[in-house]
Each structure stands twice: as structure tokens, then as C-alpha cells.
Amino acid sequence: MSKIMSPPPASAKVTTQTSLPRVFHQAIRLITRSGINEEGIFRISGNKETVAQLKERIDRGEDIDFVKEQCVPFDVAALMKMFLREMPDPMLQGHLYDQWLATLTSDDPLSEVKVMLKKIPIDSQKLLETLIPFLYKIGLNSSINKMDFGNLSKTVGPNLLWKVGASNDPTAALLDSNKINDVVSIMIENAEAIWPDQFNGDGGKWATWNAKLYGHTKSVQALGIGRDQEEIWSFDSKGQVIVWCAQTYKKLRQFDTQQNVVTTTYSPEPHDFIWSGAPQTIKIWNTKTYEEVKELKIGGFCFVNIGEQVFIGTEGGIHIYNSTTYEKEGEISLPGLLVRAMEADEKNLWAATTHREVFIHIIDIQTRAVTREIKEGHTKSVNGFTRFAGNFWTAGNDHMCVFDANGGLVKTITHNGGHTGAILSVATFGNHVWSLGWDTSIRIWEVKSIETSLSSSLTDLKTSQNGTTMQHKMYKPVFSMDAHNDCVESVEFIYDKERKCWKAWTGSFDKAVCVFGISPTYDLTEPPKEEPKPVEHRSSSPEPVTTSPISDTAQSGYRAKAGSWRTGVSSGAREQMRGFMTERQTKLGSTENLVGQQSEGNSSPELPTQEGL
Q1: pLDDT digits (tens, 9 = 90+) for 456-509
Q2: Where is the composition biased (Basic and acidic residues) (predicted)?
Q3: Looking at the DSSP assignment, which residues form a beta bridge with residue 488?
């Protein structure tokens, strides 16, 4: 027996979710990131010499990071098939050979397949639980990689089941081979029904990778929610838009916006219209007819909706338009600056600009005057905002910061549990913050209040409790996802009505859109609002603004999401979300001890990740 199937040495890393060999997960991770769109993946043979070298290294007990070594996906796919073929007994068990083939003559083959899966050893069940859903996700891109479910079953099926001591009759062998492929095809086609936990994030995983969708030829810059929350629009840097079905992940439509570079979108409830912003123009699209409704001759880099008005960040300041008539109703001048991102609460509008010293301008919504200029916290540009527990989280080219509602710096998040490189966007979903990074990863953050002894060395102590302890906030990443192969810039959360669960859709510079199923045990409760510190200093507005203030009616109807509208969850969606949440079941018991552990060759803690990635 080849050592490729031998237990890993004690020094080797193993996955925290199952007892599967790490090499198997590493292979899936590599193909997920850079091989799903390759035509003929699993069908085209790898380089024999390279595959043999990889196998030899694994047999020696070496822990290979295929992603770090930039291995060729075809070589790794060939290694996976070798992994399966060299097992001492077929994955589906040779002694069950005839029973597997008999499932095809049953009145309900799928039910019989489910019964048979319970007869194989638990280790084989676990491996199939990872492998078959992975093949299903590859098949979703069959229009790109030419590997539909049938082709995948033909290339992988013979490595899962064979008849021990089979006859030399080639005709019989061919017939049996076709039957084996049909059995495996049933599994792949029905992967969601057989292994639902691999799609809805259940079983202790915060989020589970569901799909990676290709179709764009340039970087995916922005996402928008389409009609009735049943469609997702993805925009790329060439101006192309693809409309995806949120339930089936199928491409419904593709067209050219004629905007060259779409940098941001805004999709107000009930999502009948989507605004797409580019450096020179803004276009408004009807999500039911897919037609252009209006073109505004200004650049759009970020949007915030306040009442019946849309605040648009552009070059030279902020333009204010009526969200229904599309007429301009005001302007906030910031001469010489480009507004990169915006966010708002009940009183103030926060704007991140290209100013080299003032990273954030706080603007009074009523008077439209700049009331504070924030120079602290960041040393490089701010890319995005999100509101969490009454505070403002900022994503910067240097790190993340947390400010209170008055602009006071609460926390600079620079510890090595976070991203390496720039953070491009932040989003609030339920009781957690999501961050999207230049390093290709997506991280989910938790904020916890803990008490500690006064003798402890802490930098963010808040209040004295009883004279011997102090309370402070802990900001830590608790889950990480890296299905993308380039920086991730946009995210939208949408409720999957068919599966009755939440999904996160992400867009990346790798030209792909990923879908993640969010666990039913994910905490969807909105955090309590924290009171800000008293304002110590406010700078005056450089110039008084002559535009009229917002009416009380509009103010009471205020609703805002993160700066570029990539990150919000509608109020109606929140109510729907609560309806399906009966209790909070936190799964942090097994993950807290991982935060802070150092992985080999990396200064960052090894966080729990979606299984197989």
C-alpha cells in the first residue's frame, strides 16, 4: 500500500473538522482557488513527473501547501484521483459492488444511494461528504470548464468503486463502468440533498463555501441585490454585468453597462432599481426589465440613502439626488478631494476622502457642515465603513479602526489575527463584522466584553467594576474563508427562500463570484448600542454650505448601509431572519483555543475555516 494513504505523522498538520488527511483538503483548497474554471479539470491528465514527485513528498510525510507552492491544478487533480485509486479497498467498498449497481434498478435510486452510504465505514463517509459536494460545485461551472456532472462522474467514478477480482471480459467491464458512473452521477447531482451541512454552514462552521461562479472577464468590483431578493447583479471593471439567480446560481442575463469601470452599486428596498457608479457616470437600472432608466453625468464612487435622498460621493464633494425623481437637490463641497466611501447614522454623515492628512470628515446631516476632521487611527487611505453597536468600523489600506459615534478612536485593530495587507471593505451582518482583504481572505469578527485583573497588561481597559477588575473589549477574528484567489472587495447578504437560509455573495479581482451558506447557528442578533465618549474637539467647516437641511419627515425615514451599499441587510430581511432563528447556539468552544495559536511559517493565528478550504 502506498504511504499516500497512511496516517499522517504526529508532527504533520491535520484538519480540525474531521480526521481526513490534510493533503486531501489542501488539494481541494488549491482547485477551489485556481482550478474550477480550468477546462477539463479532473479529465486532463497532469504532468506525470510532477505528480510522481508530489506523491513521493507526501509518502515521506511532508506537509505540502499546494496554494503556497502555486501547484498546477491539473497535477493536483491527478494526485487526488491517485489518492482514491490507491486505497486498499474502494471508497464505496468492493464487497458492496453488486448492491451499489442494484440501486440503479430501484424505483427510487436516490433513496437507495442514501441507504448504501450508511453501510460504508465512517472515514469513507466523511471523505465522500467532502469530495462529492466539491465535485458538484465544480459542475456548476460546466459552461466554463466543460465538466458537467456526467463528465465528472466518468473521470472520478472509476476511482471510487471497482470489482475486486473482476473478469477479463471487456464488454462486461465497460457496462459495469457505465453503471458505476451513473451511481456517482446520482450522488453529484443530488449533493445538496444528501449532504445539506456542506452547503448551509451547519455542523459548527460559521459559513460554508457553496459555489464559485465564473463568467466575467475582468475583476468583479461590485454586487447589487436584484428584484424580490431573488437575483444578484455582479459588475466588473469592464462594465459588464451578470444577473445570477440567487437560488440556482445560474446566469440569467449578461449585458454591457457602457460605463467601462463600475466601482460601486446601490440597491434600495424593494430592490426594483440598482444604481451603478463609475468614474464618469451613474446609471440607474430597472431590475424587472433590465433596462436603463436614467443616466447621471457625474462620477459615483459611493452611495448613502437618507430618507428620500441619495448622497453620492464623487470628485469634489457629495452630490444629493432625489431617490425617486432622480433630480439633484443639493451638494456638499469638498474642493480637491475625491470621496471614496461614506456611512451615516441618525445625526452625521461620515466621508472618507483622498486628503493626505484628514482621513475622515464628519458632516452634520441637518446643516451639511463639516463638524469634525479625523486624522488619527489611520496612516493610509480609508476604503470603507460599517456601523456596529453604534460605532463606526473603518477598513483602511493599513488596518481597521473602530470609532465611536462622535469620532473618538475606540480601537486600532492591528494584531496579527487580521489581514495581511489592505482591508478593502467591511460589513455588518447580525452580531458580527465581516472584513474583505487584499490578501484574498474574508474574516468574521467577534467583539466580546471581558473582565480581567488590574495587574494584567492591557491597552484598551474601559471601566472599573469593583476595584480589582477592569472591563475591556476584545476584538478578534473567529472564522476565515479564502475561496477566492485574488483580493475580495464586495459582499451582499441575501436570504435564500428555497433553502430557508442566509447566503453571502462575494466579488473578487479573480473574476469570480463566490456564494457562502451561513450557519443556522450564526448569531443574527443585532448588538446593543454603545454610548460614545463626550466630544473633546470639533473643527469648523471650511466653508458654510448653502444647501437646505433635510426635512423631519425624511430624517425619520432614514436608512443607511455601508458606504458603497455592498454590505447592508434590509430591515424587512432582518425580521425574516429573526423568524427562522429560535435560539442562539454558539460554537466558539472549539475555536477560541485556536485563536492565538501560531501556524508554521506564518505570524497569524490559524483560524477555523470552511471545511476543505
Answers
A1: 444 444 444 455 555 667 888 889 998 999 999 999 999 998 888 899 999 999
A2: 526-540
A3: 508
What's the rounded Cα separation, in Å, for the pair 209 and 518? 9
The values of phi and psi at residue 443, to 5°, are: -125, 145
Q: Which domains does the chain have, with CATH numbers?
A: 3-200 (1.10.555.10), 207-446+477-590 (2.130.10.10)
Q: Which pairs from 53-60 meet CB under 8 Å and 24+ separation?
A: 54/79, 55/2, 55/4, 55/79, 55/82, 58/3, 58/4, 58/23, 59/2, 59/3, 59/4, 59/6, 60/3
Measure the CA–CA gap between 316 and 331, rounded to whole angstroms: 10
Strand order in the sheet with 382-388: 382-388, 391-396, 400-403, 409-413
Distance CA 406, CA 537 (A): 10
The conformational region for residue 407 under phi > 0 = left, psi -120 to 50 = alpha, else beta, is: left
Q: Is the dihedral of CA 304, 308, 314, 317 positive or negative?
A: negative
The answer, yes or no, to whether residue 2 has pLDDT greater than 50, is no
CA dist., res. 285 & res. 412, Å (int):
39
Instruction: State which H helix or E strand residue 409 sits in.
Output: strand 409-413
Cα 296 from Cα 595, distance rounded (Å):
48
- At residue 473, the pLDDT reads 78
- What pLDDT digit, counting tens, does each position of 315-356 carry? 999 999 999 999 999 999 999 999 999 999 999 999 999 998
